[in-house]
Amino acid sequence: MKIALVQASFIEGAFGKNLTTIITHIRKAKDLGVDIVVFPELAISGGNVGDIADYDDFGESNLNAINAIASECRDIAVVVGCYIPTENTVLRPFFNAACFIAEGKMQQIVAKTVLNDSDISEESRYFEPNTDFLTCTYKNETFAIVISDDISVPVVSMEFSVNPMDQISKQSPTFAICIGAVPFDYNQREIRHTVISTNAARYEIPFLFVNMVGGHNNIVYDGGSLVANAQGEITYEMNYFKEDVYVVNLNNKQENISEFEIPNLPKIARIYDAITCGLRDYFARSGFKKAVIGLSGGIDSAVTAALMVDVLGKENVMGVLLPSEFSTSHSIKDAEDLAKNLGIEYDIVPIKTAYNTFMQMFEPRWQDLPFDVTEENLQARIRAVVLMSYSNKFKAMLVNTSNKSEAAVGYGTLYGDLCGGISALGDLYKTQVYELTHYLNRNGIRIPENTITKAPSAELRPGQKDADSLPDYDILDKLLYAHLEGKNNAEQLLAMGFDQALVNKVLKLIRLNEYKRCQAPPIIRVSTCAFGHGRRFPVVW
Amino acid sequence: MKIALVQASFIEGAFGKNLTTIITHIRKAKDLGVDIVVFPELAISGGNVGDIADYDDFGESNLNAINAIASECRDIAVVVGCYIPTENTVLRPFFNAACFIAEGKMQQIVAKTVLNDSDISEESRYFEPNTDFLTCTYKNETFAIVISDDISVPVVSMEFSVNPMDQISKQSPTFAICIGAVPFDYNQREIRHTVISTNAARYEIPFLFVNMVGGHNNIVYDGGSLVANAQGEITYEMNYFKEDVYVVNLNNKQENISEFEIPNLPKIARIYDAITCGLRDYFARSGFKKAVIGLSGGIDSAVTAALMVDVLGKENVMGVLLPSEFSTSHSIKDAEDLAKNLGIEYDIVPIKTAYNTFMQMFEPRWQDLPFDVTEENLQARIRAVVLMSYSNKFKAMLVNTSNKSEAAVGYGTLYGDLCGGISALGDLYKTQVYELTHYLNRNGIRIPENTITKAPSAELRPGQKDADSLPDYDILDKLLYAHLEGKNNAEQLLAMGFDQALVNKVLKLIRLNEYKRCQAPPIIRVSTCAFGHGRRFPVVW
Fold first, then answer.
1. How far is A184 from A241, CA to CA, in rounded Å?
2. Count of C-beta atoms within a 10 Å radius of residue A204
3. Which residues have CB under 8 Å from A83's CB, separation 6+?
4. Burial code of B466-504, b = ≥16 C-beta within 10 A, e = fewer?
5. Which residue, A306, A125, A292, A279, is CA-closest to A217?
6. A319 phi and psi, to 5 degrees?
7. C-beta atoms of A378 and B389 within 8 A
């Protein structure tokens, strides 16, 4: 039995384009004498369509695509993920289905049982869970088809009582195909290896896992599809963040021997790959070819600019330096050094005249009111006006440069430095931004040394440093991680040794600043808990 | 049997405050000789907590509150909604439960069966569905407890196969208590009457329905709790948008006679009540006492200002007029007339000098590039900078003035007129804004006549009118309603008689402008499909 695993990118709602991708791969696979071609979960519609599914033609478009695929399935079989409409006696409109198509028609619909409604997933909004557990048969081989969480939840949560593979395995499948549209996060690869290995070993059959790939708004599907033998050893791992096809021959005993070694890529390299993949596809799909970035001389904007150069090429990235009267001289030099290192075009647009103009406009009402956060924000907002004007005039998307530490505690100006069409670093803590800097500089200095070594500052008043109002990022980031990703509450954080006053202050800041985060740009997600759609908090509570 | 229905406001995560509310009502009810006191769905935690529930102390806080309530339950019983933790053999961490507490302890936990994951609801993210159907007994009376969608879905979707009341009714309850946290929308009242009547008539028992009340971020719970007799007639309707308590005596046959007439409040009056309730509570919870509004002389800002005067009082609303060189003379006069009619303070801050300053800053790069959308947006963004400076300096929340028609087609400037801490009109089509205007003027002119009669214009270039680039709002709004609320796709819209070119243009604009809406302020929801959290669309697709 020869099985082709097609790890490809499928675009939300682009039924025509997705169908072309599928049919092209089916025809190629035929030429290679493949028996079954496997596509990812929800390949027909794209994985992250949201309420596009509310419209009548959505179900129809899925079924039409299935028919078109069926007409290609002579002498070859296909497993492909799609939305299958349910009867209206149930609450949800669709099944999240794997369709097994052979001999010119749909042979079996296998629906997902374990629906994911955590973090960025909300499958119960659209999908009815499966209750039938059946194997499929092709060319006298009986095999299992399962969908992502159906095999991962029982491994990750050992006490979980529903296990679809336990049911299906009663019918003695000889191998299993698992399709997924599983987003990247920096722990996902290890989990995925464990899940596939554990299942293969437990049921003593080979497991073939095919994942979606590509950037889709805030989500990056990372690929990394896997093959495991009946001993639970990983025998093949497909590319990450790239389209890839692999043909497994299950009859070839040689292939079942594990000579595979997991390439040991450092975590930060995978984060770099995820963010650049996400940005590349976001720009491509939004039709923007150019980016504009405000360069402060600080580390966040420097790293963002370097990432965008890698994504779009240096000729498509424009830097704007926006010094104010509080900008230190090294800031301008550091930003210029960066632009020169990266080879990008840059303008210097001092904001002092605009600042003075606004202050004169306010004078009749402000009179002698003291300098406060208003004037700090004013500078940040003038910069945003300039950057958005560049964005409009030159059809360049403004890339937001905020990081996760700042977003958490509200260190940033709404409609100021929080602006942008997409956030590159919004799911990285400040300490991770430094890590990424070193990665970007691994083959030579791109981000200037002084940008890395100087104390972070917003430079919105004389002599300001982040450390004046925030704790050291080393401590802050550990606390934020324990609270946001780790879900530790105040009591638990104290037990972990964090200072009481600090815990109270930081948790309060997180709570009070939801109003800024709820208006922030989409953030490329790389952690298990990114701000944005995956973390639902009331603005006032 | 005397039953007190307590329609109160319960704040997200404010366990201490909510418990005090509950205990105060229990003690008052005792004094009145009440047998059972009923509180709304999720009263203990507040109804719309989102991922606050992810933290360990959340389940504990619910259980602690139950214990505190139990210790009050001597000679009185309580039905109250809360989160009850599940075992970890299931996927979701909680039940959405109605606790029946009597004789100092929990007597029974009734969990919700029909979980709502549509629109703004995402119950499957947190809740496991119920599978046990049991009645409760107190003082020799057997009765049913059910939760909101458990009785509404089987009525609204007649073919739906799960009906908890069918199961419970096998045990012959003599009346039913239904608790809800059902948000307002302008069709909700009629649906609610039908649902309660239909259930009471079908099972031939009285139905008592208690709803949550109050503004909670974008959601407004409207109260309007109901009593129906065993013939399915509504015998009592509680206040809308106000806390209210009603004691039903089920033994008093007089009370079961329906002399009730539904007060016939026009739809626009209910919308007015919902928006002002939402704004009032949003301001109160966010700690803001003042509002600032940019007054353009147009209808949206005029209506927003009038609403805010009704919510906060005229002394707490500040208008800022921000004329540009493209503002017509009547705009300034209309805005001044409005401010005078409303009795609010206002400043005039012309933006021309700031506009010229920015254009000079851009000159080295722009040179002779023609006037385009950049310069239009620049004006809107300068206004936002001024308004946000006022907001910061005077601790006044900027109230956004965009309407739903504009938000749909992207007619507005990101970081310009789309700014604000909350959107008052974001769920009203332009034609509804006119309706609301007439309602606001019902007892005398508040919004100037000329603001109502003139053609809408953004006034960002000479002689600009909305109608230059958009169809008449009469037609546009009908099309938008059919597509957004009605879920009609392009083909269906054509069949309804809309022009093909118009349908294509509008649907494309809706799709392309998600990037603006995803960074918009929270919108007070009054329809069945508001932009924001309840409508999930990818930004690029």
1. 9
2. 11
3. A42, A44, A45, A53, A58, A59, A62, A94, A95, A96, A97, A126
4. beeebbebeebbbbbbbbbebebbbebbeeeebeeeebe
5. A279
6. -100, 145
7. yes
Say which residue the tokens 């309840």 belong to.
Answer: B534
Nearest by CB: A374 against B88, B353, B389: B389
- The tokens of A147 are what? 């969908």
Q: Could you tell me which residues come within 8 angstroms of residue A67 by beta carbon, excluding any fewer than 6 positions away?
A: none
A residues 122-161 closer than 8 Å to B (CB): 122, 124-125, 153, 157, 159-161
Give the three-state DSSP class for A485.
coil
- Reference B460, options B284, B296, B348; nearest CA is B296
* Phi, psi values for residue B457, rounded to 5°: -155, 140
| Token couple for B8 | 């109160």
* Dihedral angle over CA of B88, B90, B94, B96, nearest 10: -150
Tokens of B229: 């007799």
CA nearest B296: which of B411, B463, B417? Answer: B417
What pTM does this model have?
Answer: 0.96
What type of residue sits at position B85? P
What is the residue whose two structure tokens read 């008093």? B252
Contact A241, A275 (CB under 8 A): no
DSSP for B252-270?
-GGGGS---------HHHH
Structural element, H or E, at residue B180: strand B175-180
Q: Are A52 and A221 in contact (CB under 8 A)?
A: no
Q: How would you write the pLDDT of chain A (541 residues) with one tens digit per residue? A: 999 999 999 999 999 999 999 999 999 999 999 999 999 999 999 998 999 999 989 999 999 999 999 999 999 999 999 999 998 889 899 999 999 999 999 999 999 999 999 999 999 999 999 999 999 999 999 999 999 999 998 888 877 888 999 999 999 999 999 999 999 999 899 999 999 999 999 999 999 999 999 999 999 999 999 999 999 999 999 999 999 999 999 987 666 666 666 667 789 999 999 999 999 999 999 999 999 999 999 999 999 999 999 999 999 999 999 999 888 888 999 999 999 999 999 999 999 999 999 999 999 999 989 999 999 999 999 999 999 999 999 999 999 999 999 999 999 999 999 999 999 999 999 999 999 999 999 999 999 999 999 998 888 888 888 888 888 999 999 999 999 999 999 999 999 999 999 999 999 999 999 999 999 999 999 999 999 989 999 998 8
- The amino acid that residue A130 corresponds to is N
Q: How far is A524 from chain B (nearest CA, A)?
A: 13
Q: At what angle do helices B473-484 and B430-440 cross, to 10 degrees?
A: 110
The 10 Å Cβ neighbour count of residue B330 is 14
Q: With contacts defined as CB-CB under 8 Å, which chain B residues touch A370?
A: none
In terms of Cα–Cα distance, which of B67, B2, B10, B68 is closest to B31? B2
Could you tell me which of A99, A178, A174 has the C-alpha nearest to residue A139?
A: A174
Q: Quick check: A286 and B515 CB within 8 A?
A: yes
Size of interface A-B (CB pairs under 8 A): 236
Question: Comparing C-alpha atoms, which of A158, A96, A169 is closest to residue A127?
Answer: A96
Q: In this complex, which of B124, B357, B378 lies closest to A353 when CB atoms are compared?
A: B357
State the Cα–Cα distance between residues A338 and A342, nearest whole angstrom: 6
